[in-house]
Amino acid sequence: MKFFLTIYILFIVYYPSIAGWIRPHHFNIISRSIHDFHNDRCKQFHTVTQQVDHLSFVNKDTFQQRYILNTDYWQNGRPIFFYAGNEGDIDLFCDNTGFMWDIAPNFNAMIIFAEHRYYGHSLPYGNQSYSKPEYTRYLTSEQSLADYAYLIDYIRTNIKGAEQSSTIVFGGSYGGMLSAYFRMKYPHLVAGALAASAPILQMSTPCESFTRIITQDFLRESSSCVKIIRSSWHAIDRIGILPGGRERLTKLFKLCHPLKTIAELKNWLFDIFANIAVVDYPYPTSFLADLPAFPIRIFCTNVTSSIIDEINTDEEIVKRIVKGVNVFFNYTGHTECFDTGSQGTPSLGILGWSYQSCTEFPMPICSNGISDMFEIQPWNFQAFSDYCFAQWKVRPRSEWTFMEFGGKPITNFRYYSNIIFTNGNLDPWSAGGVNSTIVSSLPAILITGGAHHLDLRAANKDDPQSVIQVRQEIVKLIQKWVS
Amino acid sequence: MKFFLTIYILFIVYYPSIAGWIRPHHFNIISRSIHDFHNDRCKQFHTVTQQVDHLSFVNKDTFQQRYILNTDYWQNGRPIFFYAGNEGDIDLFCDNTGFMWDIAPNFNAMIIFAEHRYYGHSLPYGNQSYSKPEYTRYLTSEQSLADYAYLIDYIRTNIKGAEQSSTIVFGGSYGGMLSAYFRMKYPHLVAGALAASAPILQMSTPCESFTRIITQDFLRESSSCVKIIRSSWHAIDRIGILPGGRERLTKLFKLCHPLKTIAELKNWLFDIFANIAVVDYPYPTSFLADLPAFPIRIFCTNVTSSIIDEINTDEEIVKRIVKGVNVFFNYTGHTECFDTGSQGTPSLGILGWSYQSCTEFPMPICSNGISDMFEIQPWNFQAFSDYCFAQWKVRPRSEWTFMEFGGKPITNFRYYSNIIFTNGNLDPWSAGGVNSTIVSSLPAILITGGAHHLDLRAANKDDPQSVIQVRQEIVKLIQKWVS
């Protein structure tokens, strides 16, 4: 079995590479083969007709938005729990947001997961949705919030007993940003929001923060591990420039296809480091295919096993990294080779987030080689913008995002209310999160030992005490909002 | 001098006429020749570059938005008073919003009047702005609010000492709606809003309310007057169908051009009745050209003077109406003839509101002949929608307006704060206003004896006590918001 990195949940990371923006880095993955929490109820799909363009009147096209509806626990008049779908198939978010299912019975809540336009099956122009600017232009957060507003109204109108139901909006990562935005812009429709691991400030966060947190996660497990990773970049270079060097690296890393460039390998390794930091959960999960509990720990154990005082050869350094990467092999034993990039046409999820990064949400990520274990890769906004123009005929305007939703300065969020911002200290995306409570109605809660939106996942026997407590706090606040 | 009804401020009324929607009714006028309050500072124009499309990224066109800036009273760090411009040249709103100038010295406030896109000189595509759907599509309230957000940010960034200034937004009529919407959607930018005579609910208000209030205003002055108006419609019909009847009516009413249809005359009369109710101020003004104080009273005095028990002839009835209309002649003595409609290309103000009525703000107005003094004219949404499609290639979707801004039911406004809704009991537009206080942070204040946004006008020795008190209340609330 190939170890194919299916890009799915979370964000594509636009990290400046030697290869430039033409082949953007990405990561953030769900293997579709095995889910942590496979929920048959996440296949109960419905559709609703939406305007392609809510915000103007010239284009009268409509499309079918997909959503999941569950009323197993619901009683008349009781709340609606609404998940603001993000960049992918909605059933994947449903499968990985067990928290809503865990607490719905206590609230006799209806559960809705709404698929984000331009992702999954909710494609305004079918498989042509990404084919030209006239079709992509309706992929914005404002349009998706309008979809969600209409969907809530539709449910309240069409399900008897739901007319007066309070709605609580949930979301993680970009979905967490939408969750916060939805409460900000539509307080007449939603009573409160859980914005889990929402990097709502990432567009203006120092670009090195993300890689610094990855590095801290690895340092927490082993400083030797970080030392080896740090030295591996030049080791790879030195092997790569030798005659037959790329072939040697292809073989060492068990790659499915011959390496074309050294940058390709480095990008792929960066993706792996970033990913296992993002999903460094305390129990086995299938984010980034199938991972063991504490994947960084396992990675570093492999890298540093039988360590000697001095590592003398480039080959030895690289072999240790390979051993770390083998954490994937070792865990399931099924992977025969690794693929350093997605093949052929990228999935719509990749296209969508590429477009959104190129418009409202350019999220600078860089490394300086000092506060992080990577090579120096400065962020170059102009180069990124040029990439966006070449790719999509658009240029990013993140100042609009802050103008529309606030956050610059962060204190101007204080005019909003009933939003919980949770972040895990292990999560690189926490760099762009709201990490301090600005006003009491916008509590910022840190989950110690938490990776990316751990709080949204189903309860697990291996959950740290921190997330158990945070979930209790969230439930209390929701009780307050719906009462 | 022709008495030419220059359509300017306020709304075009889409009142179903016998002639259908092809020639929509309109009213709401400012004579550009004489202003109530002519303020040289309303000619201090500036411009700022705005995105034509804030809400998508494909169209990168920009345009120059015009605004008026005054810092005569301003001190560093003190508030910004921002007028959310409505459907017309911004200097006209500036000239007719003396209240902001009156109270600015007390607050050491900076004054800004922002021109609404697609009106005045703020034309995204110059004189082609209304030429095709691809150009008109950016005429929406959301886009204009985004302009205002950018303008405030621009001022705060570029005027030293304004970085931390609180902004209070003012507006009357449609500008009052925008003022409320601006506070709702951008509380991180504006601390509070005065929404004066804002018919924010007119899209869902029973259509006969507007004409009922006009009638009540006339009844308050004279029931005989209303009786004569009521009987005039058939009198006009009976004269009109006679051989040479239209010529006779043309002569009786001193029209500049021969009447083509009876409907044309009736529409024009409806406009006059609606207009003088809207601007039934207690002192002479130049809304609707030059009007005396209490124009309804003067109109009715003329109509009912030397009244006899029984009015026997159609001609006599019509002559009395003509005498009422002559209130305009009598007041300035300059008008030689009346023009029943705008000639040639309507001004951009008409075009703009026509488009906005056909998209976000369809405001049903009808008459039943019972609660009002007009003929029966039912509201026909489908006919209106068809007119819109023929005219602009769009159809109205007012459900979007309520989805976006709340108000259906009205109680869902309660999730917003710091908006004062003022309405005058004489104002037909008060029918669609917020007339009861939903929560304490959204006070609804009635101005007894007030016509359309009387409170926004400069203080006048003939102001009723009610408006004096209301202005004091407004000042107190603004003091609370900016402190």
TrEMBL record, chains A, B:
Checking InterPro entries in the record gives: AB_hydrolase_fold, Peptidase_S28, Ser_carbopepase_S28_SKS
User: What Pfam families does UniProt report for this protein, alphabetically?
Assistant: Peptidase_S28
Q: Where in the cell is it found?
A: Lysosome
Keywords from UniProt, A to Z, are: Carboxypeptidase, Disulfide bond, Glycoprotein, Hydrolase, Lysosome, Protease, Signal, Zymogen
State the EC number(s).
3.4.16.2
Name the GO terms of the biological process aspect. negative regulation of systemic arterial blood pressure; proteolysis; regulation of blood vessel endothelial cell migration
Enumerate the GO terms in the molecular function aspect.
dipeptidyl-peptidase activity; serine-type carboxypeptidase activity
- At the top level, the lineage of the source is Eukaryota
One Gene Ontology cellular component: lysosome
- The protein's enzyme class: hydrolase
Does the keyword Hydrolase feature in the UniProt annotation?
Answer: yes
The chemistry this enzyme catalyses reads:
Cleavage of a -Pro-|-Xaa bond to release a C-terminal amino acid
Chief place of localization: other
Is Iron given among the entry's keywords? no
Q: What does the annotation say about its assembly with partners?
A: Homodimer.
Say what the protein does. Answer: Cleaves C-terminal amino acids linked to proline in peptides such as angiotensin II, III and des-Arg9-bradykinin. This cleavage occurs at acidic pH, but enzymatic activity is retained with some substrates at neutral pH.
Instruction: Name the PANTHER family on file.
Output: LYSOSOMAL PRO-X CARBOXYPEPTIDASE (PTHR11010:SF38), PROTEASE S28 PRO-X CARBOXYPEPTIDASE-RELATED (PTHR11010)
As for family, the record states: Belongs to the peptidase S28 family.
Protein name as it appears in the record: Lysosomal Pro-X carboxypeptidase
Q: Give the species.
A: Adineta steineri
Q: What taxonomic lineage is listed for the species of origin?
A: Eukaryota, Metazoa, Spiralia, Gnathifera, Rotifera
